[in-house]
Amino acid sequence: xxxxxxxxxxxxxxxxxxxxxxxxxxxxxxxxxxxxxxxxxxxxxxxxxxxxxxxxxxxxxxxxxxxxxxxxxxxxxxxxxxxxxxxxxxxxxxxxxxxxxxxxxxxxxxxxxxxxxxxxxxxxxxxxxxxxxxxxxxxxxxxxxxxxxxxxxxxxxxxxxxxxxxxxxxxxxxxxxxxxxxxxxxxxxxxxxxxxxxxxxxxxxxxxxxxxxxxxxxxxxxxxxxxxxxxxxxxxxxxxxxxxxxxxxxxxxxxxxxxxxxxxxxxxxxxxxxxxxxxxxxxxxxxxxxxxxxxxxxxxxxxxxxxxxxxxxxxxxxxxxxxxxxxxxxxxxxxxxxxxxxxxxxxxxxxxxxxxxxxxxxxxxxxxxxxxxxxxxxxxxxxxxxxxxxxxxxxxxxx
Length: 399
Hints:
The chain is mainly alpha-helical. It folds into 2 domains: 1-186, Growth Hormone, Chain: A (Up-down Bundle); 202-399, Up-down Bundle (Growth Hormone, Chain: A), CATH 1.20.1250.20. 81% of the residues lie in helices and 0% in strands. It contains 17 helices and no strands. Helix 1 (5-28) packs antiparallel against helix 5 (99-129) and helix 16 (334-363) runs antiparallel to helix 17 (365-398). It starts with a helix and ends with a helix.
């Protein structure tokens, strides 16, 4: 007999909320922390680029190990990752100087947290299959809310207590997460042994041949998140010509994050009425509209409207992408599928960081947004073709 639905959901909510609260400290305030430790902007860029590239490499590797159905389970990896993040946060708190050491530790915990993210999603599907009924959309939405609330209060806390408050808060959240994960044990069930037809495709070439439509969609997602990250990373440069301030930027970012909650909370009901493939196309269109509105915005009101498209873009893509993997992948490939979705988000950020900063210096924010809009349009065309390929492949499999 399993625990009541709300009990499983509550614990999964805490896992998500603490993860994204720590994400705020490590990711959203990375520049603030590293600048205080003596890093230059160039070195910060190198640190984050290296961490992202490492996460792109390690996400599929770790996912492949989990997919082998051995002792390396989603929960065990989650606990190990949380413990490593806790250790790294403690070290960054006690180390007062030493740029090389801080560079290594920060890059590693940044990378570990990115690798850990798709494992949380895969854990939901694993537990759901074992009868631990969880409201995934609600939990993921409250994770975003945790990020928004933490980001808001952290900014004020840094002004009062200094930058080390970031690591203190991270340590508190990570201890909570580790305790909850320790007791978040899946009930003992007899998982079906892999059949002769079930093969884990851990080789990238083999994975692409098996899931060509899915991997084509991953390329489309890279395009979506190129523009998404360009807007997020360079918001202040975009709104300054419109008379926007840092305070208005804070409002725009917080509103976008909070608007993710209602969509994600209702996604389980939405999926019953709209197919996952159609939802992914809707999210692609929303990414395009969001970028277009930011491009043509004459004032901050239109910027706020653009940010409100988050509830149809990112807020739809994240849960729909998770369900898309579960519907498209074989059982022994599903963790890798979640990892590749996360890899697409990471790569979009890497390309955006490398290209859009240079575009800003050369041509300014308007031209950067024109390029972002063009890339998103290409992504939407690729997504449409990719989902057609997936549909054809599934029909062939049924026959």
